[in-house]
Specification:
With 157 residues, this protein is an all-alpha fold. The chain contains 7 helices and no strands.
């Protein structure tokens, strides 16, 4: 894949992840609150309503930041934060599977297992779409920021 095609794919992944997080966050606060309450394991030592609202606010903030942050290294750091967030909520996904908790149509062990296996893909997407591994580890020079690329194209270069 050409470098430009890879950059476009990463940008599309970042937009999709940001939009998905923002949408899920709004769901935490509004139309999906009951379903999200069902996903909070009983062993979490915090009020269920607080967990749902706080995670919703966090998802909206992360989603908005992903939609609006394009310069490196901030973009990569944000991707790392999103990946850590997905790891942090993973125990809730495990509990939903092991405790057989129904929410969002996940009413069989097979559906809950598929959802559980999807979580690591979100971690990979957060790191890959923001170029976090490459930028934060310095394995290769980071791609130019979107703004610089656009300016270069407008100048004919």
């Amino acid at each position: 894949m050409r470098e430009d095609g890879g950059a476009k794919l990463r940008m599309a992944g970042q937009v999709a992840l940001g939009a998905g997080l923002a949408f899920a966050g709004v769901g935490h606060l509004t139309f999906g609150r009951e379903e999200f309450r069902a996903q909070v394991p009983p062993w979490v030592p915090l009020d269920t309503e607080f967990v749902v609202l706080a995670s919703g606010v966090a998802e909206i903030a992360l989603g908005g930041a992903l939609l609006g942050t394009w310069r490196q290294p901030r973009r990569a750091k944000l991707g790392a934060v999103a990946a850590v967030f997905f790891v942090a909520v993973f125990p809730g996904n495990v509990a939903q599977f092991t405790e057989g908790r129904d929410a969002f149509g996940l009413d069989t062990d097979t559906k809950r297992l598929v959802r559980l296996l999807f979580q690591p893909l979100l971690v990979v997407l957060a790191v890959g779409a923001t170029d976090a591994r490459r930028v934060l580890t310095g394995t290769r020079r980071a791609l130019p920021s979107t703004a610089r690329r656009v300016r270069r194209r407008l100048r004919g270069g």
